[in-house]
């Protein structure tokens, strides 16, 4: 009889595949100007490279549970990995924007299926007492990959070519496919369970899938395009919002009355899983929003290079990796609800620290705030993963995995949209208030203008040039201060989002420590 492979080998391979997929949600963001230049399109048109991936990723997540039941975890995972690898290479060789968008859709469809089935594979490969550590390895991939993405994408675009943002998935994907094919196998029990599920679960809920996919896809498009297209000032966004609302209104009664729905609405409406779903929404929002906007802050307002902006995030990534394994052990001794409360409080403290940001703030102050975030995120992420499966029947595990990942993805998009809007509107607000003091009748303004004019005049400018340079300098200071104040408002908002997780966590009931019993196979 063939010996079972070491589950830790399976965990490493699955984590590498997950890391590769999650990396692609952010790696293209900083490469957009290079992609636009290479394909001869505007940056606004090139930004659909990000949108199409997120939309197709969210849509395919909802169908993954059904496809796993039909194909089995190994075959489905290999099919997703193969499609992801091939479409990644095709993205690198895309001849125009339309081709690139098509290949990104295929990449997103494949990636959307990989992450939830990764969790299911880990759940069935480890005994309950070891699952916390296994999910820690998975958590490193999910939480650290978005941090690495912008830094790696920027470095590759600057020093090699934007094509390598996609090409790197080729060799990694092929190696992972070979490893999964060799290591992963289905037990006789799992095969029998899959065949039974096929007989009992009936056909695919096509109408439900279309409604859920339309709803999630419309939300992703609104979040990603809303600010650029002026939200409800744009007929396109109004049309997308109308489609989103109609799909949601039809989805709820349809899915509630199906015997085997695409999305089990009752599961989301339950106290335990519903609270976990909402907390994961908030976690996804904070993870992606801080990962995207902290580098923007230091590059835009503090003059950091792309490399140094990435380095601001790096210490936090290292702390996250270490904390994942510590939290994995804690989950065998401490109730997830208390770890979530601790994590949310630490993240809130991290965001509060960042509200003190100013023009001369040092590198290590920002890095330490990020390290504090790196302590809090694993406490929430792994605890939700453990608590969300509690009380879930074995045949609903794949559905639960898919929904938790939908929450993470959708939360990330909502978080980025929220921060983008807070930034845009609060910067306008602060600028308008600051300009009120930049008037000829202000003694302070006149004194500042005189001193700055004298400075430029003493450095060789004519009086007329010095006066113009002084006015421009004052304008730049106003704009810079308005930007800093807007980021301060962003960090206050994210602090409130993290604190909202505390009452949700306290609503969770206690689970069996050592691993969710419901996940026994």
Question: Secondary-structure element sequence?
Answer: HHHHHHHHHHHHHHHHHHHHH
So what's the CATH class of the largest domain?
A: Mainly Alpha
What is the number of E strands? 0
- The stretches of 5 or more residues where confidence is low (pLDDT under 50) are 515-521
Number of domain modules: 3
Helix content: over 70%
Rg: 25 Å
Write a short abstract of this structure.
The protein has 21 helices and no strands. With 521 residues, it is mostly helical.
How would you characterize this protein structure?
The chain is built from 21 helices and no strands. It is mainly alpha-helical. It has three domains: 204 residues, Growth Hormone, Chain: A (Up-down Bundle); 57 residues; 243 residues, Growth Hormone, Chain: A (Up-down Bundle). It is globular, with a radius of gyration of 25 Å. The relative contact order is 0.12. The C terminus is likely disordered.
Please describe the structure with a list of short key phrases separated by commas or semicolons:
mainly alpha; 521 residues; Growth Hormone, Chain: A; disordered C terminus; globular; 21 helices
Q: Secondary-structure blueprint of this entry?
A:
Elements: H1 7-23, H2 32-39, H3 43-46, H4 48-71, H5 73-92, H6 97-125, H7 131-159, H8 164-167, H9 169-183, H10 188-201, H11 206-225, H12 235-257, H13 265-269, H14 271-300, H15 306-330, H16 336-354, H17 363-388, H18 397-435, H19 443-458, H20 463-499, H21 501-506
Helix pairs in contact: 1-6, 1-7, 1-9, 4-5, 4-6, 4-11, 4-18, 5-6, 5-9, 6-7, 6-18, 7-14, 7-15, 7-17, 11-12, 11-18, 14-15, 14-17, 14-18, 14-20, 15-17, 16-17, 16-20, 18-20, 19-20
